[in-house]
Specification:
The chain is of the alpha/beta class. The chain has helices spanning 17-28, 47-59, 74-84, 103-113, 144-151, 166-171, 182-192, 209-215, 219-235, 240-254, 258-267, and strands at 5-11, 36-42, 63-69, 89-94, 98-99, 119-127, 136-138, 163-165, 197-208. The protein has 11 helices and 9 strands. Strands 1, 2, 3, 4, 5, 6, 7, 8 and 9 form a 9-stranded mixed beta sheet that branches.
């Protein structure tokens, strides 16, 4: 049986029409195209975004499934996408990101060469306005033991780059219905259940850096950090001692003014 791969994407009312189109174009230009794309969106998506999705659905040479749901957070939306996907492998992408042309082919090649691996991600290339001008690279560890060590204090997989075995994620309960950090919690739950995670040391996806900074700032994100740490403790990956230590570092950073957050983000968290 041939290997199959589904792409799962979530999109919301705040997404940009042109950025969504760029994302779809990057999927159409894949060297190894997906077998299907699952788009999970809210019922109240603006008409201009629905039009972009409809055009993509009509013109794509592969199956596109447009699923409208009640908005209950990204965790719930991704849970629905994984459940509805029919392929052995699932690749995640966000609606405002751009997949490099060989993204899917490189990840499938990795799985073929490493059959015990359950999850594989890669590097993110961040840009300001031009995707061809990378301003920084978000690197992550490539080996399982290094990934485990990083997971104690920081998310070890770049979520927009990830591809995983559908059965492995379903085996640990799929994405949780969380407002924030549903990916980090899932990786910790997979590690707690002895699943194998890896990263390819290459840029697989290009992301707008300014939007990442905006998403990760503010009192609401600080509140959700507490919820995230509680969920990871409940997964059994680590205990409250590590969780409190993480909160002592992460919450003050979330409350910093944007200009200071950007400086930390670029000089400490990125290469």
């Amino acid at each position: 049986m041939d290997t199959t791969v589904s792409v799962v994407m979530t999109t919301y009312s705040g997404d940009n029409q042109d950025e969504l189109q760029d994302c779809f174009t990057s999927l159409l230009e894949q060297k190894r195209q997906p077998d299907e794309v699952i788009i999970v969106r809210g019922h109240n998506l603006p008409s201009e975004l629905v039009e972009v999705i409809t055009e993509f659905e009509v013109n794509a040479p592969f199956s596109v499934h447009d699923i409208a749901i009640d908005e209950r957070g990204r965790g719930h939306a991704r849970n629905v996408g994984v459940e509805r996907a029919t392929s052995e492998f699932i690749a995640i992408i966000d609606a405002d990101d751009i997949a490099c042309q060989d993204r899917l082919s490189r990840q499938l090649e990795y799985f073929d060469a490493n059959p015990s691996t359950d999850v594989v991600g890669g590097y993110i290339g961040e840009f300001e306005t031009d995707p061809n001008e990378t301003t920084s690279v978000r690197e992550v560890p490539t080996e399982l033991e290094e990934i485990k060590r990083m997971a104690y204090y920081r998310c070890p997989i770049n979520h927009p780059t990830v591809m995983f075995r559908r059965d492995a994620v379903l085996d640990v309960g799929n994405y949780r219905e969380m407002e924030y950090g549903e990916d980090y919690e899932l990786w910790c739950r997979l590690l707690a259940n002895d699943k194998e995670l890896a990263n390819i040391p290459e840029i697989l996806v290009k992301v707008r850096a300014t939007e990442l900074i905006t998403r990760r700032q503010g009192r609401e994100i600080a509140r959700r950090e507490v919820q995230l740490q509680r969920a990871i403790v409940q997964s059994g990956f680590y205990g409250w001692g590590i969780a409190f230590a993480n909160l002592g570092i992460r919450i003050p950073i979330r409350l910093l003014p944007k200009q200071f957050l950007k400086r930390i983000y670029q000089k400490i968290l990125r290469s």
